[in-house]
Specification:
Elements (H helix, E strand, L loop, with lengths): L7 H20 L5 H7 L23 H7 L5 H13 L3 H5 L6 E2 L5 E3 L15 E3 L1 H7 L14 H14 L16 H17 L9 H16 L1 H8 L8 H18 L1
Antiparallel strand pairs: 1-2, 2-3
Helix pairs in contact: 1-2, 3-4, 4-6, 4-9, 9-10, 10-11
């Protein structure tokens, strides 16, 4: 794997994947339990000791750069960017928003994604949406409650409309998905960055996950590490359910202040 040029993190992920495969095989009585126990002794690669390529840590992006690309994004993508910057939610969570998944009864809206990164650990993920984020999201809730709020179809329609105004040849997309996912959202952001550069604006490369780090950095600076952890949905496996309730209170407080 190292010879293939894979970075250390990816190699370790693949090692853990193999371990999980053999654990499943043991549970199905396909291989002896001793095989899996032997694999448990295989450690992951250590930083600086393996010769594997290291990746740079994800860094937050300056908010001024994020605002710079908004005029070069479709209204749908621009709303997604601003919402992620305010809430710190993951790209997959952002792309999965549906009206039926949001409680809008209080000052803080509560969004509970159907699927999320730690669902397999039986964790509940609740995202607090404050007044500023609510204002951005509200127009996209006017649809069937089971439909996804952010659709490439709407972005494509907006693009065609803008090109018609400029009297350019309009190419109608034959295949447009009904919803964004984390990959198409990332591509849309990269398109906006390229468009900004084409217009002569100096803007660095960045990706959606950096917006999550920007939100975390802002919240941690103003309200502390616990509030940032709560807002982003990070939790330790040893934390009790009572502590999780405290986390949600902190997340709501952060949403009122920043979101």
């Amino acid at each position: 794997m190292i010879k293939c040029g894979w970075c250390r993190n990816v190699v370790n992920q693949r090692i853990n994947m193999v371990k999980r495969m053999f654990r499943w095989a043991v549970s199905e009585q396909l291989v002896p339990a001793s095989t899996y126990h032997g694999l448990q002794a295989v450690e992951g690669l250590k930083r600086g000791r393996s010769g594997a390529r290291e990746t740079e840590r994800v860094q937050p992006v300056a908010e001024k750069h994020v605002r710079t690309i908004l005029p070069f994004s479709s209204p749908t993508v621009a709303a997604m960017i601003q919402l992620q910057l305010l809430t710190g939610m993951r790209s997959s969570e952002l792309a999965s928003i549906r009206p039926c998944d949001i409680e809008t009864g209080g000052k803080i809206w509560l969004y509970r994604p159907v699927t999320h990164k730690t669902r397999y650990r039986d964790h509940e993920r609740t995202i607090s949406i404050g007044p500023r984020a609510q204002k951005i999201l509200k127009p996209f809730l006017k649809r069937k409650i089971t439909d996804y709020c952010f659709s490439p179809v709407e972005s494509d329609a907006n693009r065609r409309q803008q090109r018609c105004k400029k009297k350019k040849n309009v190419k109608i997309s034959e295949k447009v998905r009904s919803r964004y996912d984390k990959d198409s959202y990332r591509r849309a952001m990269q398109y906006a960055i390229k468009a900004a550069r084409k217009a002569g604006i100096d803007v660095p490369d960045f990706h959606p996950h950096q917006l999550r780090h920007t939100a975390a950095t802002r919240i941690r600076k103003e309200m502390g590490l616990d509030a940032a952890r709560a807002m982003l949905g990070h939790r330790n496996l040893k934390i009790t359910d009572d502590y999780a309730e405290l986390d949600q209170a902190l997340a709501g407080e952060a949403a009122l202040k920043f979101g």
